[in-house]
Protein 1
Amino acid sequence: MSITPRQKQLIQQSFSKVEPIADDAALIFYRKLFEYDPNLRELFKGSMKQQGQKLMATLKVAVNTLDNLDKLVPVLQQLAIKHVDYGVKVDDYTPVGNALLFALKTGLGNEFTDEVKEAWRDLYIVVADVMRSAAYPNYSKSTYTNRKQYAK
């Protein structure tokens, strides 16, 4: 797993600007996620406010462990296996990543530069790959293609 020192810095700096608007960012994220794939809404049984808080707490853990990504792996693996129990499919990681980038872009405005976007995208690719590998034994990054169609 590899994120450059510059990317770590950009992710940490940008997350510190999103954290004060965490509730709004989570709301933006879930609205966009359900816009991309309305079927995902049925996976969420509880309070969306609490779900948003869990999302932001998980992001905070990820951001705070960027200097030791190997420490993050077991956390992501456990989370992925739990998500299978909730009904998450391998293809569902795609709209989640896109909704995350959208929420960050919306929350950061002009500060969501191409470089910041690339840093977050690269981090999400690492996270999603670790989680997919843990949750779906037949998943292979080199051969996987998401063929599901999403709303734009």
Protein 2
Amino acid sequence: MTKNKSRRKLDLSPEKIAASKARKQGLRKLATSVREMTEEEQQVETNKFGLIPSIAGYELSSFNSIFLRRQRANVSEVGGFNQWRKAGRKVKKGSKAISIWLPCKKKEKTDAETGETIPEEKFFRLVNVFDILDTELITAPAKEDSLRQLQAS
């Protein structure tokens, strides 16, 4: 197992790597079908179902809302794994993630050799989120139960 700054990469079997690539390819194909919708078609679908709220307190774009509903029809509110933990909820074991396209930026840099300024680069990254139905409240053990366990040992 190798460690990056904040992420751990697991040694994956060739089968898992192939399954991951197939899933990403399917999601890209789905994103293309949403992107190919006319603005009017997107507006109709957004008006019919509304925008999906995020646990962070904002509504997702119409593109991501449609993209999520094409993956799972009954999506109601989404958040990342750590966002749910901060909100006092945990993702249920065995829950399957759904994906959204997250806008990202690479900061403006200066080339060390030429001194030229490389402009800020904007791109999208596929990230996993979970619906609120895939989560449950985090319950702390009652103090009495903790005391009983200590006394029993």
Protein 3
Amino acid sequence: MTTENTIRERFVNWLRHFNRRVTNPIMLTFAGRRIYAVVLPVGRKSGRPYRTPVLAMPWNQGVIIPLPYGQGTDWCQNALAARGCHLEWSGREYVMVAPRLVGRESAMGAFPGWLHALLRHTHEFMRLDFLPGPTASSASDGGNRGHSHHGTK
């Protein structure tokens, strides 16, 4: 491993920690609107519900979420282990199923051109499907399933 790779890995780890503690709590105040959503996974070890702000774009009966830190993030691992999660988006909460990792080539068609530059270093994405049927509930009508006060894993 080169020194440049080690420095980059340290920076990415520092940035992940910083975003979890500082940026994510701020993002949660407006996530769920426009291109931002809130992933509501349940911890695979703790069983605790979490809230994590993400960028999400609708795509073929589901959403595509960029994984700028790769598939090792807690929320991604939790969604994969549980075979799904809930997602707050556009004022509603959805049950998401069939999480799977997709490459850049498969995912970029979901994103408008103006976001391509922002995603230029992102090579992994998660695809989630909406659970078929009337599963959406208003996030304000009790649809939050107890996810409102926990951390951002």
Protein 4
Amino acid sequence: MLETLRAGIASYGTPEEVLTDNGSQYITWRGMEKARGQGLNRVSGVVRDIATDGIGEADGAADVVLLFNLLHCEDAGALLRESWRVLRAGGRIGAVHWRSDVPAPRGPELAIRPHPEAIERWLIEAGFTILVPPKVLQPYHFGLVGSKQPEAT
């Protein structure tokens, strides 16, 4: 599932530090455990509802923001604008979500899952340039990658 995102963010090499925010303590812990198992020792986890409380980082602090299965929230535009705020100029955003055209063993109801075209439009409305348009990530997801372009001087 991550190959599309990996291609879109590959130019950043090995990150100095990775911060993971998740509303689930268990998922945050498991993600950190898996990362450390792969030798990524500078991973820190924060349990936070970023759709409600924001990402919690300074303006321009992040090279990459990854949003997995979050954009069915009440205000996806606000979450994307918050992602824009914390990304540095030239930073990338990767979004993965459950497909709405196939039933899956888990995830939100099909009726509230956003379509790939909607997420692409929301990214553009938030100011991102699309680098990797929506691609199906078999069997249950799709993903796309955008960039926060440096401001013209």
